[in-house]
Structure formats: structure tokens, C-alpha cells
Give the backbone structure.
Amino acid sequence: MKKFWAVFVARNLEFFRDRSTLIFNLAFPIILILGFAYAFPGGGGTTFKIGLVGDRPAAGSVEDVAFLHYKHLQFLPYAGLATPLDRLAHDQIDMVIDFSKREYYVNEASSNGYVLEKMFAAGDSSAAAPASGGIFSRNTVSGTPIRYVDWLVPGVLGINILFGSLSGVGFVIVRYRRNGVLKRFKATPLSAFQFVSAQVLSRFFIVAFLSTVIFAGTDSVLHFRMAGSWALLALVNALAILCMISLGLVFSSRIKSEEAAGGIMNLITWPMMILSGVFFSLEGTPQAMQIASRAFPITYYIEASRAVMLDGAGLARIAGDLGVLAAMTLVFLAAAAALFKWE
């Protein structure tokens, strides 16, 4: 334990004494969150999203309505009402139309819903014939509208965890290998397990500390929506940090140059940022993109943390996401242990 503790303390001191790195790790995500909060004080854009339940009428049929053919509207099919009504209540979609019951739903607190209802009423009254059952009946849902920044913050924290974990473990070990530090460690009584576990625990402490400071600092100004359990959110973050650190150990286990490490890290991180729903919802995106996103651990972190913060989800609901993160962590650790070399 003395050898482990010495390496753990040394790594923490190395990070906190590097003031430029410390300031960047704190300032960048805070500026990003505050910038998006200022740019998007309400919704995240102007696209109208309408959930459709039941079979959509064929074009030109007596049941068809003109509204379904308006431009610049995105229609999302759902198998049942539960999911779209939940998303409608939280302003994630703007309207729901149920063709099987000839009903439509709007959120009375939504400005987009008000505009869409007017458009839909005009289209329905002009196209619906008596044989089709007449005009659709109106229903409303209530719920707390979710600001874009509330939806965004789990993604920004996920990116911070991703970069902090990969660079803090990956680049450091590669630099140690290039400078001959690992070769010197090999000649000491310090085992590979002690060295790697100290690096993992040190980086876990640093990333968890920075994430807490960033979240608490921005929350004191923006007051994020928190519908679920703080303890469960902490568990999600802890598991995500371990998973990202384990991924960093994999790509740093044999790389000898920081240039190669930087290229590989960009190859790993940029697809995650684009495809994991960090800055925009994957709802309505091409199916291939949604399938590709399931290969990235940050996708499961963002899903679980948003479910806890925005929907008040419990452990049972996010158990699948946590299970995938835990399984990925074990796979990454096993791969890192098999590939790790001192020199």
C-alpha cells in the first residue's frame, strides 16, 4: 500500500500543480454550458417534431389531412402513446397525433404546440370528410418544460469525463513510456498492477472532483432540473468515469509517442461527440446512426444521467445502461492488462 499510495499522491500533485491544465479542465466545460444556456434559453431549435401513433393514412385517402404534408415538419412514428406523451410533457416533441383514436395531444405550456395546433386544426377541417369520423378531438398534457441547457448538461459532463479520463491516463502513460519513466519503474519493486491501479484511482479522484465542481458551479447559476436521486446520479457518473479511464488504459498500453496517442484519441472521441447525442437528440435521426451510437460508452452514460435528471428515473429503469457500462469497463480492463508493456 505504501508504494501504491506514493504513486497515487505523486500523480495527483503532478496534475494540480499544472495550473494551465487545471484551469482549462475547469473553465472549458463551464464556458460551454453557460454559452449554450445564453444562446438557447428555451428550446434547442425551431424544428417541429410530431409523434404519430397508429397507421398513418395513405396520401389522398379520405382519412388523410393536409397537415401531414406540410413542409419543415418532422414526423416520428411510435408504437404506443406512453413514450410520446412523456416526451411531449417534457418538450422533447411538440405534438402527438393518435390515428387509431382520432385524437391529438399538445402541451399547453409549449409555444411550439400552440403553433402546431393552429396549423393542424386548419389542415384537419379542410381535409377530413364526414366518412372519416370528423375532426380529431383535442387532449392536453402537462409537464415541466425542459430547457435546452437542462438537456445539454449531461452531454457536456460526459465529454468532460471522456477527455479528462483519456488524456489524464492515456497521454500520461504514453509520456512516461517515451521519457523512460516506465522503464525505471520496472526496475523498482513496484508491480504493474500497483502502478496502473494507482493511475486509475488518481484519475478517478481528479475527474470526479472536477465534474462535481463544474456541475455545482453551473447549477448555482442555472438551477438545473433534478427530478431523480442525487445518489443514483453519482453512481452513474462513477461508473462512467471508470469505463472511460479503462478505455484510456487500452489505447495507452503500448503506444510509444504522444503524436500517435493524440491521433488515436481524436479517432475515438470525435465519433462519440457526433453520434452519441451530446448536442442534439438522436430522436428522428437515421437508423444507422442510432445503431452506431450504441457502440460508444458515453451514449449509455448520457441516456442514464438524462433519465435520472430529467425524468426522475430509478435504478430499475437505467439498469440496462449501467450494465453495459460495467461490462465495457471489464472488457477494457482485461484488454489493457493483456496489452500493457513497461517499455
